[in-house]
Specification:
Rossmann fold; alpha/beta
């Protein structure tokens, strides 16, 4: 990665009680406008890695820096308020309106009410939800795609330089998922935040990532651009993960050509 790193993860390890090593020697970095995707089978350490970045889990070893600052010396709550977090299933507060959900972090940071209101309306426009129509709805009155858009807006509310996303599109139908993916990529290009996303879907990783970290049993077995990953898989495990989306793409191309 060239240029400034907003996030730098070096030799990260996480061992749980009983000596279970969930993550071992994981390193990657993300700069402005870059999306690093952690991909691998269930239980390979993807989400554990993500939770170590915002200290929902405390790393056992290694170093994590945000804007050049070692997060180990920061207050965990204050750290999380600096990081956007989008999870599968949106995680919205059901008793709050859309406005109140998006306003949570700015209020905790002590922003003035007028500034909060302006920011919420700006973000609703950015995620393509009409403020007059959606600001005062409760999450139960939204579709799945609309709730996830509110989740993205909430994660961006304080203007973070780093966004963490854990399977953010997994629960959505294909059309909604594709549209929201495109919008998140466009938002990232416009706002230039760094992002790290967890997915088990290699096709999604190939389509969205600047770089992909393929994980297996807690370790990164290849860290590369999508193009390099396709051109030169590191070993048979990476090749197996690539086979499914490549095979599906060929089948679709064959259907289109009438083969």
């Amino acid at each position: 990665m060239a240029g400034r790193a907003i996030l730098k993860v070096e030799a990260l390890a996480k061992t749980f009680s009983g000596g279970v090593e969930a993550v071992s020697d994981v390193s990657f970095a993300a700069g402005p406008g870059e999306l690093v995707v952690l991909v691998g089978e269930s239980g390979c350490g993807k989400t554990t890695t993500l939770k170590c970045v915002n200290r929902l889990l405390e790393p056992s070893a290694g170093r994590i820096e945000i804007d050049g600052e070692d997060i180990g010396g920061l207050d965990p709550v204050a750290l999380r308020r600096r990081i956007g977090w989008v999870m599968q299933g949106d995680g919205l507060f059901p008793h709050y309106t859309v406005f109140q959900n998006i306003a949570v972090v700015p209020r905790l940071l002590g922003w003035a009410p007028d500034r909060i209101a302006d920011r919420v309306m700006e973000l609703l426009e950015l995620v393509r939800l009409e403020p007059a129509e959606f600001a005062h709805r409760k999450p139960s009155h939204l579709s799945g795609g609309q709730r996830q858009r509110v989740g993205v807006a909430r994660a961006l509310a304080s203007g973070p330089g780093l966004m963490l996303m854990d399977e953010p599109f997994g629960a959505l139908d294909p059309i909604t998922r594709d549209g929201l993916r495109e919008d998140v990529v466009a938002l990232q290009a416009e706002l230039q935040f760094a992002a790290v996303m967890v997915t088990h879907d290699m096709a999604e990783a190939l389509l969205l990532a600047t770089r992909i970290a393929v994980m297996h049993e807690g370790a990164v077995i290849q860290y590369d651009t999508p193009e390099r990953l396709l051109a030169d898989p590191a070993d048979a495990r990476v090749l197996r993960m690539l086979e499914s989306p490549v095979r599906e793409a060929r089948r679709i191309a064959g259907l289109r050509s009438g083969a």
